[in-house]
Amino acid sequence: MKRLMAISLCAIGALLAAPAMADTLVDNVQGVTIGEDGQVHRFTALVVGDDGRIAEVLASGDKAPKDIDYRVDGGNLVMLPGMIDAHLHVMGIGLGALTLDLSHTASLDEALAAIARFAAENPSRPWILGRGWNQEKWGLGRFPTAAELDAIVSDRPVWLARVDGHAGWANTQALKRAGITPATADPAGGRIIRKPGSREPEGVFIDLATSLVDSVVPPPRPADRDLALRKAQDILLANGVTAAADMGTTIEDWQTYRRAGDSGALKMRIMAYADSLKSMELIAGSAPTPWLYDDHLRLGGIKLYLDGALGSRGALLKAPYHDEPGHSGLPLLNPAQLRNQMSRAALDDFQIAVHAIGDAANAELLSAIADLGESYKGDRRWRIEHAQIVDPADIAKFGEYGIIASMQPLHQTSDRLMAEARLGPDRLSGAYAWRSIAATGARLAFGSDAPV
Questions:
Q1: I want to staple 357 with a disulfide (CB 3.0 to 4.6 A). Which of 111, 173, 338, 388 is the partner?
Q2: Do domains 96-215 and 222-446 have the same CATH topology?
Q3: Mean pLDDT for the chain overall
Q4: Per CATH, the architecture of 222-446 is what?
Q5: DSSP characters for 376-399?
Q6: Helix, strand, coil % (nearest 5) of the chain?
Q7: How many CB atoms lie within 10 A of CB 48?
């Protein structure tokens, strides 16, 4: 990746150093791009105009223009266009970079050591916050507990999001701050993991139950958010991602992007999808926003959640989990709520993107799209986010309804063993079915789901 990016970084550096109103030729590159015809095209040089935009692309044998002010020798390195990530969480990346990252830990003991070290290095932090733990990767066979956190940090609250963002792990101090007791009921769309044979919370909260603790966590200050956005942009641009669909934009996220745009610090293009109808209306009003800051920022859609994730057994399945009989996941919206929220957004021409991982969630969403298609005509560009486990009998509907399947190939490589444990080997034929979905005529949009 560093070798691939070197030419882009060199070219950018040269352009920044050049005075305004100057054309720059970047040549001697192995350029690869996608043309308007959808085919791969190769080039050996390009011309960047005085407005910072690519003015001309030159193939092998083409004559270079004569009126050039500056030339950058690409050193025969590979040059690629900036990548567009179809599904990620910009502020999640940045805030994650400012807190404890457990995504690289390979065992519970390794994670506990990292938490203890982070707490010791940050004695003034009132809460220890972080993300990235994965009990499946640890080979734990269960969720971690509050008692295990208490053994290393007992003087202040600890609250750690699971790698998929659909569960949280708390210590006893965090439970006390949130007022959570054995009498606390599971909220709709959420689940409190309890000690066997007891109602006493064990320390892990699934899906909407995480709000019980989230509600008492001090929110980031505007200055923290501004720093997080700078971190996120640095990370994404360093990996060649120059544009992204930001899934679940809050009003606080949007104001952070606006502050960056106002100050000239918004370096990448963000296509925002509001996290709720309330945020959608606060940010955009009665229609999608125009492009702002020279086509760097726009809110054009909404992100809804229909179910949870496989790792925390929140994905909504047609049959019970293979490794937890009697449990089929957590619906985060009922059928009426789903259709009402989709209809409200479609009424004002917002694009609708709905998180659906389990086969029951995907089936319900496909049914809702069919129902709404009777009222909302034309190419609505309905998006199904993840489409991770789909009943083979439902796959043809993706093409029939003109759906964009927003999928993340990384989920297959990271979840394949866990998916088989959750579903059993006989229910995987519709899992990660990119080729089958594409064969229906549906469009695929790939993303990373970073920082997941």
A1: 388
A2: no
A3: 93
A4: Alpha-Beta Barrel (3.20)
A5: S-S----EEEE--B--GGGTHHHH
A6: 35, 25, 40
A7: 22
